[in-house]
Amino acid sequence: MISTERRHEILQIASVDGRVNVLDLAHRFGVSEVTIRKDLELLDRRGALQRTRGGATASKGIFRELSLLEKIHQNADLKKKLAWKAREYIRDGDAIIIDSGSTTGEISCCLNGFNNLKVMTNSLNVAQAACQYQGVEIMMSGGNLRKKSQSLFGKRAEEGLMNYNFDKVFLGVDGYEFTAGVTTHFEQEAILNRKMCEVSQYIIAVTDSSKFGRSSLHKICNFGSIDILVTDSNISPKYADALLKSGVELSIVEAT
Q1: Which residues contact 238 (CB under 8 A, 6 or more apart)?
Q2: d(CA 186, CA 5)
Q3: Which of the residues 8, 59, 135, 188 has the least number of beta carbons within 10 Å of its own beta carbon?
Q4: How far apart are CA 117 and CA 137, in angstroms?
Q5: What is the DSSP letter of 123?
Q6: Which of the 8 DSSP states describes residue 110?
Q7: What is the torsional sign of CA 245, 211, 231, 152?
Q8: Whose CA is closest to 252, among 215, 204, 208?
Q9: Dist. CA 148–CA 114, nearest whole Å
Q10: Per-residue pLDDT tens over the stretch 172-195
Q11: The predicted structure's pLDDT at residue 64
Q12: SS3 sequence, 141-181?
C-alpha cells in the first residue's frame, strides 16, 4: 500500500471509530510505529486529525468517504435531475471529460441523441454506461484502479491528459466550502482533477446541495475557480450569493 492510500485509510478508520492508535495501525498496515507517527503528524498539520498521546482523534470537519455503491443510493432521483441539467451544457462535436463519482456517473446515462461526442473519463462506471450510445467515442485515462471509487488515478492518467484539449470537464466533488474550496477525499484523485481542469476550457461542477459546508482533506480548486455549478434549490443563499459574486454561473434544479 502506498503512503497516500495508507493515510486515507487511517482517516476512514478515525472517522468511524473516533480515534486511532499508533500500535494498532502499525500492526494493521505492517509498517513501523515511526512511519505511523509521521502519518499522524502530517494529517494533524493538515487539520484532518488531532494528534494525541499514542494516537489521534478524528477532526469534526472531515467527513467519511463513502464507496461508490453507497453514494449511488443517496439522493438517487435528485442526481438524475442534476445529470439531465448538466447535459444541457453538452453540444454535438464536443470533447468532454466526465469525472468519476455517482452524480457524474448519471451524466453518462444521458448521452443518447449525440452523433459526434468524445468522452474522456477515469471512471469504470461512466465508461460502461456511455458505451451503449453509438455516437459517443470513449477514451479512458489509464492508470491504477482504485476499487472503492471504481476510478483510475496516477501518473499515467495525469500525463495522458496533457496531450489533449477539452471543451468541458464535468467535475464531481465530495465537499464545497468557503475556505477549503472544492475538495475530495483521495489525494491522487485531487491531483488528477486539477489536471482535468487545466486541459478544459470550462469547468462544470455537478453536485447536490448537501456537499456545501463540508470539506474533505484534498483541494481540487478554490471556491470560485469553476465556471458553472449545477446543483439543487436547497443550496444555502450565502453560498449561492458568494458563487455569483465570484462569477460562477448557477444552474439550479428543484430539490423536490
Answers
A1: none
A2: 8
A3: 135
A4: 6
A5: B
A6: S
A7: positive
A8: 208
A9: 31
A10: 988 898 888 998 878 888 999 999
A11: 53
A12: CCCEEECCCCEEECHHHHHHHCCCCEEEEEECCCEEECCCE
* Set of cell numbers at residue 118: 468524445
Nearest alpha carbon to residue 184 among 77, 80, 104, 255: 104
Length of the chain: 256
Check if the beta carbon of residue 175 is closer than 8 Å to that of residue 101. Answer: no
Q: How would you classify residue 220: left for phi > 0, otherwise alpha for psi between -120 and 50, otherwise beta?
A: alpha
pLDDT tens per residue, range 37-62: 999 988 887 777 888 999 998 776 55
- pLDDT of 99-112, one tens digit each? 998 889 999 999 99
Residue type for 63, please?
F
Task: Answer for the pair 174, 182: CB distance below 8 angstroms, yes or no.
Answer: no
Asked if the model's pLDDT at residue 79 lies above 70, the reply is yes
The C-alpha atoms of residue 226 and residue 228 are separated, in whole angstroms, by 6
Q: How far apart are CA 30 and CA 24, in angstroms?
A: 10
Question: Model pTM?
Answer: 0.75
Nearest to 65 by CA among 127, 124, 14, 122: 14
**What's the grid cell of residue 141?**
485515462
CA dihedral (68, 69, 75, 79) positive or negative? positive
Average pLDDT, the chain: 88
**How far, in Å, CA of 149 to CA of 15, rounded?**
18
Per the rule left: phi > 0, alpha: psi between -120 and 50, beta: everything else, 104 is alpha
Is the pLDDT confidence value at 65 over 60?
A: no
Alpha-carbon dihedral of residues 47, 52, 54, 56, nearest 10 degrees? -40
Whether 26 and 32 have beta carbons less than 8 Å apart is answered as: yes
